[in-house]
Amino acid sequence: MKNPTLISGIMLVLVAISMATVFNAAYTSNGITFYSPSTNGQVYHYGQTLFLNASAGSQYANDPVTITITTPSGVNVDLPPAQTNAQGFIIETLGTFGQGLLSTPGTYTIAVSVQAPSPLGTKTGVIQVVYIPAQATVTIEVLNGETSTPLSGATVYLYNVTNGVHKLITEGTTGPSGTVTFTVISFNFTQTFEAVAMSSGFVNGSVTFSIVGNQSVTEVIKLYPAVLTIIPFMVMQNGTVVDASSVNAPLTSVVVTQGIPASIIVKVEFAGMPISNATVQASSAYPSLVKVLSVSPITSGPYAGDYNITIEAMVVNTTSAPYEVALTINASYMTLTQSNPLVVQAYYNSLAYLQHLIEQIQTEINSLNSEIKALNASITSLTTSLSSLNQSITTVTKEVNTLNQELITVNETASGLSGTVNSLETSVSTLSSELSSLNTTVSQLKSQVSGITPLVYGGIIAGILGLIVAIIAIVLVYRKIS
Questions:
Q1: Quick one: DSSP state of residue 79?
Q2: What residue intervals traverse the membrane (predicted)?
Q3: Do 197 and 240 belong to one domain?
Q4: What is the pLDDT of residues 174-212, one digit of tens each?
Q5: Is 0.70 surpassed by the pTM of this model?
Q6: Number of neighbours of residue 287 by Cβ within 10 angstroms
Q7: CA atoms within 13 A on the CB side of 391
Q8: What is the DSSP code string of 121-180?
Q9: Residues 127 and 22 placed together within one structural domain of the fold
């Protein structure tokens, strides 16, 4: 059973709260007074709870209430049925911004309908609230990357790229100071944004940054002119740097020693960024000759991505006065081309030149030594091969001698067989003569047999008849005896 005293106490507290809020700001719509939210269009931020505290009047006590929330996207959501209290107040917790129904930033419309019996009937009050999670201020400064001066009139696009999404939020144009400022909706968790700047004659630039809550962020984007730049910045001879400058102040004239190969290190940039896939060519114009030089990309070491131009100034004089070589460096990238002149001052340095000649001779000696070693190895290999061949020849000779002995034996055997064959031939000849004589005798016998044949056949027949008569006589005698 419920405690009447406790219920009365709670009711008094609610009445006190209700009476206290009467003196606060309120908004009335169609006979329903809203104390929370207290103004139409009240702003809420992420994590705040939306409490509904409204009064329909005491005459609407304990009546059913329908609450409908229309989201920023226009969807109507009916909340579970509610009821006014004994004083006609509607007190409900509608949710927390940033969660569930109240997740989407924008304007929410809350319609509260109280149904009472006739004659009061139904009345509906409407109030709107605005959900702005947080407001972050983003300032983008766009500068000329080569001069660091502000770029006015540049277009800046701001994208939300949180969790891989790439959604355009807003865009703007930089003013005389090269800056543009955006106000964006933010939350109490980290979001990632990307700003992309564009300006005619420049390559696009971008910057990525993060924002949490009501943060103010300033980011700088440097745009570089869409041009190709050739920057000679170092010269080396015999592994030693003989001339150098900074990248911001490229060499226009270099000094080399006649007769010694020199490496001119060149950087090629597009829109202020080094590129390693440009096509680079170079030629040198001597007083009486134009020579195409060797250009190769550098793929490793501290100058990887740069280009090495090899030039060797001919030894023209042995005085201290230099002569000039007009060097031209050409580069192409995509549809752009660029040419850069460079003056080479070629000095004669007898000590350095002699040292270089000695190094060349030493290199040649080392090369010859390597070749001699290789030849010695080849001779050793050939000697081994010859020794092996000699052994093979000795073996073959022995086998040939053995075959010769076997051939002699075969010949001797063949000679013995020849005598036997002769003897057999004589015997065959004798047998042939005898066979011929025998054939003659047989022929004679055949003639004789042919002559006596009728007489013989007659005698045989007579004999057979006599024999038959004798047999018959014997049979007859045998019967008589029996």
A1: P
A2: 455-478
A3: no
A4: 999 999 999 998 888 899 999 999 999 999 999 999 999
A5: no
A6: 10
A7: 6
A8: -EEEEEEEEEE---EEEEEEEEEETTT--B-TT-EEEEEE-GGG--EEEEEEE--TTSEE
A9: yes
pLDDT: which is higher, 480 or 49: 49
- 107: containing domain: 4-131
Reported as a single tens digit per residue, the pLDDT across 436-457 is 887 788 777 777 656 655 665 6
Using DSSP's 3-state secondary structure scheme, residue 277 falls into coil
Domain boundary among 131, 149, 175: 131
Q: DSSP assignment, residue 62?
A: T
Task: Say if 281 falls within a structural domain.
Answer: yes
8 Å CB contact between 136 and 213:
yes
Secondary structure element (H or E) that encloses residue 196, with its range:
strand 191-198
- Tokens, residue 185: 């909706």
The C-alpha torsion from 39 through 45 and 49 to 53, rounded to 10°, is: 0
Q: What are the phi and psi torsion angles at 172 (to 5°)?
A: -160, 175
E-strand spans in 305-352? 307-312, 323-333, 336-347
Tokens 């009486």 correspond to what residue?
288
Is pLDDT at 358 greater than 50 in this prediction? yes
pLDDT top residue among 294 and 417: 294
Q: What one-character DSSP code corresponds to residue 58?
A: G
Shared-domain flag, residues 124 and 32: yes
